[in-house]
Amino acid sequence: MSRRRVAALISGRGSNMAALLAAAEDPDYPATIALVLSNRADAAGLAHAAARGVPTAVVESRAFPRDRAGFEAAMEAEFARHGIETIALAGFMRLLTEGFVARWEGRLVNIHPSLLPAFPGLDTHARALAAGVLLHGCTVHLVSAGVDEGPIIAQAAVPVLPDDTEAVLAARVLAEEHRIYPAALAWLAAGRVSLAGGRAVVAGVAPAAGALANPLPSVPALPKR
Ligand code: GRF
To answer: What is the domain extent for residue 79?
Structure first.
């Protein structure tokens, strides 16, 4: 089996990248993380990747002020050097140009910490708490030109609980990110994701059974007379 050569792009902690690396340690996983690239030299995730023998690269976005195309060209030189076929954005905090997105269409995937199309952009957990939603979650999607837009491959929902802080909610969502991102990347790498009418369709997956409701709609006990 030839494994799809994936670059994981990070800007910081890199826990999603670490989840992808862990999944790809299985020889039957259809992708290999052939490069971890950061736009910041101080990204903590770089050390994690290097410690596991994964090639790393830094292309400092700061070195390309007002030149996103130049920044992307420098990244693409690294991708070419490492034979990269697919890109997994994993906490990569730079916006990409339309040209870049078009060149990598169908081969560029992102994880976002909300149930898109709710809460695109930053501070998703604080915004979910402020909005009072009772279900929140994360989304893996193919990247198209808009910010946090594109065909959805997988989502996971979690309940928002009464005492949640932003940090507690973020951790609950992050645990689900680490479950769905490796799965979604595997489907993409195995060629099981196709587009139909602008939506992503995954072949050969079991849809979720049942539903998640929060609060649980159990019938409350009648008050005693
Ligand atoms: C994650 O919540 C991801 O969904 C978002 O940025 C965060 C990155 O975390 N895009 P990590 O670097 O993967 O730990």
So the answer is: 4-121+137-155+177-202
